[in-house]
Backbone:
């Protein structure tokens, strides 16, 4: 039992390390992840690495391919467009389900995150804060399957959001800031219709802007 517990702890640790590397862009889309290389780099046996890869696959961060191992998905423009349209439908639902259960602690933390964004941050820091902001708005949603689905969609689209922000981020930041404040305002008023409308526009704008940057995707 003790050995099994240690393996689970090691798997969680390895999964967390790889998740940070994937979301931060240290590991690029299309990259293959080899168990033996990860085990050697992180000082582990292969068994915890294998379990860590299963965790990452369940969270939408990697693909497990039969007889080929694991790799970071490399999506084309059409696939990313579909994922963003899924987000346009699921995230407003998660927001409206979360909103009745939110309280001043949530509102205050959202405002603190947004203030940190507006204080001036790098693209990498913005992406971390932006993720915290949005997942916090959904955090009180009582349906775990819905929250998990939203999280997986965020994971799947993270590399393309990062590439996009490096190109257009600075000049468009004022729009993001305004939309974030509108979402906070709707939450404080417990106005689900306004919140959903602002959020749909927020996600849709990014989808439309991604569509005019084919250089962010692999060549067809």
Residues:
């Amino acid at each position: 039992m003790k050995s099994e517990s240690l393996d689970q702890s090691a798997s969680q640790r390895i999964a967390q390390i790889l998740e940070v590397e994937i979301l931060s862009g240290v590991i690029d889309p299309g990259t293959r992840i080899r168990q033996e290389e990860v085990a050697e780099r992180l000082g582990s046996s292969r068994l915890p690495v294998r379990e860590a890869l299963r965790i990452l696959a369940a969270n939408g961060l990697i693909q497990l391919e039969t007889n080929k191992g694991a790799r970071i998905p490399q999506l084309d423009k059409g696939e990313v467009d579909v994922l963003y349209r899924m987000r346009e439908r699921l995230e407003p639902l998660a927001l409206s389900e979360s909103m009745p259960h939110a309280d001043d602690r949530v509102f205050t933390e959202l405002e603190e995150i947004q203030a940190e964004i507006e204080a001036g941050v790098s693209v990498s820091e913005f992406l971390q804060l932006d993720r915290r902001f949005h997942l916090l708005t959904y955090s009180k949603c009582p349906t775990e399957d819905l929250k998990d689905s939203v999280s997986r969609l965020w994971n799947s689209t993270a590399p393309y959001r990062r590439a996009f922000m490096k190109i257009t981020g600075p000049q468009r930041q004022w729009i993001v800031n305004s939309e974030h404040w509108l979402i906070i305002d709707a939450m404080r008023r417990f106005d689900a219709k306004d919140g959903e409308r602002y959020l749909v526009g927020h996600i849709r704008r990014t989808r439309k802007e991604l569509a005019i940057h084919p250089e962010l995707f692999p060549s067809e």
User: Anything to note?
Assistant: The first helix runs from residue 2 to 23. The chain has a mean pLDDT of 89. The radius of gyration is 18 Å. Residues 127 and 162 are 7 Å apart (CA to CA).
